[in-house]
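Final report, section 2: Outcomes. Of the targets proposed, Amino acid adenylation domain-containing protein is the one most frequently requested by collaborating groups, and we therefore present its record in full.
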Amino acid sequence: MKTAPLGPSPRTLGDVLRHSARRFAERPALRAGPLLLTYAGLDRCTDALAARIRAAGVRPGERVGLCVARGPLALVASAALMRAGCSYVPLDAAHPSQRLRHIVGNAGLKAVVRDESGRAAPEIAELTALHVDGDDLTPGPVTGPLAGSGTGDDAGPDPHSAAYVMYTSGSTGVPKGVEVTHANVLAMLADALPLFGFTDHEVWPLQHAHGFDVSVWEMWAAVAVGATLVAVPPDAQQNPESLAELLLRHSATRLHIVPSVFQHLTEVLEEEAARLPLRNVTFCGEALNYRAIRTWSRSQPGPQPAWCNVYGITETTVYNTFKRLTAEEVVRADPATPIGTAYDHSPAVVLDADLRPLPPGRTGEILIGGRQVARGYVGMPGLTAERFVTLPGRPGRWYRTGDLGHTDGAGQLHYVGRRDDQVKIRGFRIELGEIDHALRAVPWIGDAAAVVQHTARGEPVLAACVVPGHTAEGEAGAGGRPAGGLLDRLRKELAAALPEHMLPGRVVCLDRLPLNANGKTDRRALAEDLSRRS
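The predicted structure is given below as tokens.
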């Protein structure tokens, strides 16, 4: 029996949760170790925490930091903040001080919801803090401003209120805050949910951090269809053996996963000869890894899951296209990743440099329009105007993705790459220019550029190509001869400015960086040079 996509005319994400709490009241909504929250319990926890947030003096319309570990508190706290009429701004206590300070200032944060992990971030110490812990995952009576309101949303948001602000990598070295509304997310859910063929009693892992926009789909698609989310504990986040064990133990039916992570999972299942009868695997965040799909098929005989690929970005609310792969396409392994067709209310076009339409087969920039286009960048009107545009003869606002692609004769989209220096590593969107900026700030580096290499298994890895400054002569080899311990030293110095996923996995010292005809650093030549050295 298929579930209805959403409740009757929801205005906010809080309405979606309220509808599911009524429809699936005693169905498991969230499992985390010994914790089990039903949908009714999840709704009551959300109401109770929303009441605490209001009682703490936080007002509707404010942006509030959310600094908690990934897992159950991220779901409950983000839902509570939105139900209280606020938008949540993810903060990661493990991120560098410089990045956290920028987000706090740029978003205008005055308050933060944090768990014990958030106490380790001094950059948020001056904010009004509301502490959350395991007690907030225990349903109880609602007290305070929301008590007895009936819906809990009476003074809450409307569809065009901001739901969250997600910070992405910035080419100038400054992260960009993308403001997304309830209406944007509801539009995504309304268009996307019917495409996946969800049935009753779906189970999938809650594994992505709330600072990664895939978490929005992971959480709210589950809430909308009454699925059970299984929180992935910290020791399983980077451990494919533990992740495989969790999926097997809870009989997961679906995965929403980055291809490079799926590769490791398939290898573990093959080595352990374990059978995981998934119904659907949806890939996101990176180019498809066909070899991993074939490994799965070899090690998992019998009915295969539906292999799906989705495409989208933070500025256009998570996902915008859908593609179900055929067995022939898996074998053929098209180098231009097929991303399918755009959603009904999220049109996609491929345009040339002058924003003119291109015929099938011609590569150009992908632009996304429609109801999922976000408000823009917080405090960056110039960049917002540059990237969020209007097109002659096409209604509404369109977002210039910077992604290159083409259509085929059937109107299907194929992703080719980036027109600038933005890449995706393990699902994280990264501006190489931001890494360049941090590298050049290191005292002993005269010049530097980051590039992406691929391992023998086809996984993307960041590499730093550095030209040592005069003060560093004798400390690091030149001409591509890395000095002993240089990578560890560089990673430690960069960690003050960059999060873990943006730290290079390799460093090579050069006499100079190659330049292209325009006098700019030639990243392609650098990548080719490093490939020859490997």
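Residues 147-154, 472-483 have pLDDT under 50 and may be disordered.
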